[in-house]
Amino acid sequence: MSKPSARQERILAILRSRGPARVAELAREFDVSPITLRRDAEVIGSLLALVPLVVAFLMLQRYWRSGPTAGSVE
């Protein structure tokens, strides 16, 4: 999956700073249709959903490399 577009990054920044917002309000602010804004929101949501999966994968990768007994007391 590719990185978010500049508009999607700005939308995310606005949502982080202001909190929840209406689609129609953001669509007017960015001069796009509500459908385009919803599509951007779907992309942002799917990218954010991947973050926990990536973290879990990296943790498992560390576990696999070190072996199941790493850190155990003998």
Automatic annotation (TrEMBL):
Q: Which InterPro entries match?
A: DeoR_HTH, WH-like_DNA-bd_sf, WH_DNA-bd_sf
Q: Which UniProt keywords apply?
A: Membrane, Transcription, Transcription regulation, Transmembrane, Transmembrane helix
- Sections of the chain in a coiled coil: none
Enumerate the transmembrane spans.
43-64
For the HTH deoR-type domain, which residue ranges apply? 4-74
Q: Which Pfam family name is an example for this entry? A: HTH_DeoR
Q: Which SUPFAM superfamilies match?
A: Winged helix' DNA-binding domain
Report the protein name in the record.
Answer: HTH deoR-type domain-containing protein
